[in-house]
Every structure is written in structure tokens, then in C-alpha cells.
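Re: [help] complex structure
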Amino acid sequence: MPSERPPLDALTALPTPRVWSMLVTIFGDLARNPEDRIEGPTLTRLTEGMGLKPEAVRVALHRLRNDDWIASVKSGRTASHGLTPHGRRESLSASRIIYARQEELPVGWQLALLESSDADQKPSLQAEGFVQLLPRVFVGNGQARVPQGVAVFMGDTPPNWLSAQIVPADVTAEYETLLTALRQTSARVADLQPGQLRPLDVALTRCLIVHHWRRLVLRHPYLPPALTGAAWPGHLCRAEVTHLLARFQRPALHEIQGT
Amino acid sequence: MPSERPPLDALTALPTPRVWSMLVTIFGDLARNPEDRIEGPTLTRLTEGMGLKPEAVRVALHRLRNDDWIASVKSGRTASHGLTPHGRRESLSASRIIYARQEELPVGWQLALLESSDADQKPSLQAEGFVQLLPRVFVGNGQARVPQGVAVFMGDTPPNWLSAQIVPADVTAEYETLLTALRQTSARVADLQPGQLRPLDVALTRCLIVHHWRRLVLRHPYLPPALTGAAWPGHLCRAEVTHLLARFQRPALHEIQGT
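Output below.
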């Protein structure tokens, strides 16, 4: 009979998530299929397990309905909630970045040089994940598409100063904090057998991991290890996330409803 | 009996050279060996053939002696002049750029990115013939040496705007003017047989060609056709200079003295 509680203190000690953002994570991770709905009581148990207040969850659900992200229906006295088509598209698009294993991501890097500092191609470069280094110089992963008229150069081994200039120090520091929490979590669950946890606790653990990772990984474009160095905390976080999500396999919704 | 005069009007129509600079060309082209001396009367005939005034030549010789570039000795009533060891070193160093055929020059190009706009490596890059494009970005030929700590990228096909940004328009315009004069000269001498000209006139023609070419080619670093385009007038000038100097082979000093 599963009865252990997951050791989540390292993850719950991280900055308290914004409630609406945490709900985006929960639905994006657990209820991404068109027919998936999470019942009110299940959502309450998940959010309470993360220390979120019921009133804050109600407000956040209201906001997400207004944003056409979540739709709620009532069946008798029980509400159930699911992603709208819009929310599902956004979730699927983000999931390609959030859940990618390092080996699925582009390798190598490139430098792009613009004709002028107000060149037309700037938005396209940024949309392709290029990071601005100088008014006319961007860097990005080696498979990013470069618009016409931009001079492009494949990167070799970069000097150390380059990664420090393209990754803001505060972003690196946030990844370091997350890395510590992920490693502590990994160490504490090392001896747990999958069956020892209730599906709801597995879901809770996954959502906390994905949430804190998602916040960071969607904020800054992906820069490959060739550019940042393989020991950059962002890459090490991705390895830990991949490892932990494989241990805490996503439960089916019916396993966590009404438990 | 050689009797033709070389058709030099296209070359003498170019901006009048500075006299001291013209003397540097004459000695650098005709009298580069340690034992080479040009006798006063020969120098007079060469400079008069270029339209230079005897008084201006005397002043320029005085200046070049003060600069430890030329040494003069008197034997009876005749002075003779030659490069000093210093003048010879400088001439030899410049000659590697002036007389190089296109196929002897580096191919390909590279971009160098500095850590900061006041990086220590800036003078080294400039000494290696890199041209500054932005405060932290230089371009140069593909074989130029790049100092430690500089990020370097091999160039591929560059966009058109790049060559316009690295070669000042006035430099290109000057090459265009020279190219016209060189091509007119080539056309006029097309039917001349080498033996039809006196050695002194061959020397005169060479020196005018080398002089106007030298002024330009030493002023701006060498940028390969991969970067500027093969049709850039600087490269076309080099081809014409190579062709003309092969037609007007350097005479031995003894052939032009006292003729």
C-alpha cells in the first residue's frame, strides 16, 4: 500500500510560485489532451499540497478563464477544468522546450552580424532565439534560421568571456538555486520505489519540478553547451529535470482523481 | 635602335606625386640591393621624365638623408645615391605587399570579436591587417593571426553591404581612377615590343606605375576577394600592375646609367 510522502521541502523552499502560473504548469503537465479535465477537489488537493490558498486559486482560475486559457464546466455540485484550444496550443508549444532532453536540442552555435543597428531582421533573429550581444551582433544555437541579408558565422570554441556576456548573471544565479533544490530532491528520493508514492503525490512532485524549471527555461533563449559550457547550471538543471521526471512518471488523470 | 617614347600620359595625368615619396619608389624599385647606387644625372633624367623640378628633388633628397633612408656619396663631380640599411629594410618589407601577385596573397576572410571595445588585443589585430567594422568587431584575411582571447569566425559568402562598410568609398574611388589609367597604359603599350623602349624609359614607366599603386596599397590593409568581391577595383588594379610590370621588366642599373 503506497503511503510515503514525497520529500518536497527543497522544492517548496524555492520562491512561492504565482498561482496562475502554477495552474498553467499543472494543466500543461497533467491535462494536455483535448478531453482531459481536472475536477475541482483534485485541483484543490494539488494546490493545497503546494501551499497555495484556495481563495488565490479561485482568483487565478477566474483570470485564466478570462484569458481563454482554461474552461470550467459544472456537473452537479462538482466543477471540472480543462485547457481551452488556445491554452492547449500554447502549452504544447512550450512543452517542446520544457521537456526536451539535452540530446534532442540543437548543438553548435552561430554569430549573426546585422547591416545596421536598426536592421529589419532584428525581430526575426530574436524570434529564432538569438541573444543580442552588441547593437549589430547576435548569437544563437547552430540550427537557428538566419534571415536573408544577415552575415552569419559558425562558432568554434568560444572564449570564456563570451558566455558571461550573453547570459545575465542573475539568470545563472537562479539556475544555480534551482539546481541545488533539484539535486537535494534527487538525493532524497534515491531510495524511494515508484509504487511507494500515491499518484497524487507523484503529480504534485512533477508539477513543482516542472513549474520552477519552466519559469526559467522559457524566460531566456536556449544557448547550447558549445556556447555556454556544458557545466552551465542551466544545462545541469535540464539533466536533473529529465532524470526526476523519468522517476516521477506522469500518472493518468483517472489515477489522481478522487484519491 | 630603340627610339619609342613610352605612352605615359595616362599615368602622368594622375595626381602629382610628392617628390620624396616618388624617390622612395625609385630607389625601392630600381636600387634595392645593398651595392646599388643611382648616379645624380640618371636620377635627374628619371625625375625630369616624371615632370619633377630639380630643386624639389634636391630638397627631397635632403629630407630622405635626414630620415636615414638614403645615403649620398660624391665621386669627383658626380654624386651617387643609395638606400641606407634602414631604407632597404623598409623597402623590402613594403615590396612584399606591393609586388605580390593575387595568387600569392591569403584567401578567405575572418571576423574577430573582442571582449571589450578597449581590449588589449586591438593593436595586434590592426598590425595583422584587420579592419575595424564596429568597436568590438574586426575583419581580416583568412590567414591573419588572431591574438589569444579574441573570438574568431571564418567568413563564408558575405552579404553585399559588408564590403561597402569596410572599404571606405574614397579608397575605392581612388583605385577606380588608378585602374582607368593603368588600363589606358596597357592598351597603348599593347603593340610595343620590349626592345623598342630605352631602359631609362622602361624604368620611368615602372616607377610611375609602382608609385601610384604603392600609395594606395600601403594605405589600406589587404582584404581578400572573398570579402570585397573579385571585381573590387583594388584587386583589378593589382592584376593590371602585375601585367604591366611583367611587360616592363626592371632594367639593370648599369643599363640606365649614363644613357
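Residues 109-154 of chain B form one domain.
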